[in-house]
Amino acid sequence: MTGQTTPTWTPAEARVYPLRLYGDPILRRKAKPLTLTDTFNVPGVGPQNVRQVAQTMLETMFEARGVGLAAPQVGLPVRMFVAVEYEDDEEENEGQDSPLRSRVLRDFVMINPVVSVLNKKKDRSYQEGCLSIPGIYEEGVPRARAVSVKYTDLEGHQQILEAEDYLARVFQHELDHLDGVLFLDRLPPEVTDDYRKELLALQQKSRTLIGDLAQADRLRRERGGA
Fold first, then answer.
1. 207 lies in a domain?
2. 130 is in an annotated binding site
């Protein structure tokens, strides 16, 4: 949730993942459950286990100066997301030079999360954005004020976490990604229409990135990689 990314990609950048952009079909797919023993062929990177994926997703989120990141946003259609709670209210921290990790209260890796609404009253007061739709921010996205999330952690333990206000919004945003829903979908259609030019440009960048990743995968196979 929120941030910026550059669409070009080479294997040398595997410290972080390339972020899938608006227009990429994977952002519209319903993600599937996973198990801790799964291994994924990460597009443009190669085989990684769940723990490796989770760690790289966290690094990618911090690099993009975000507060959450779902697996479909890095090309994996599985039900996992990472998120973070910072020590102050400057969630996006755009234009700041201080490392985000220095301000982390706690971070989360949520596998197969299920959200239950604790407070049905909708909140529309926060500005919302998305790492897959960089540069576009809107207020008015309706989200439940309080939720409970049941999930599996990286140790295989079942956890239940309650969240309110902004953190509850972050969790709901990332859960939407696992169901193929973007935050613009929850606003009136004219909002998307207002950003038609920007979204068309993102679609073009998305096509370029998909091609870059396919080429990286071909090169890896030619060199004997998995």
1. yes
2. yes
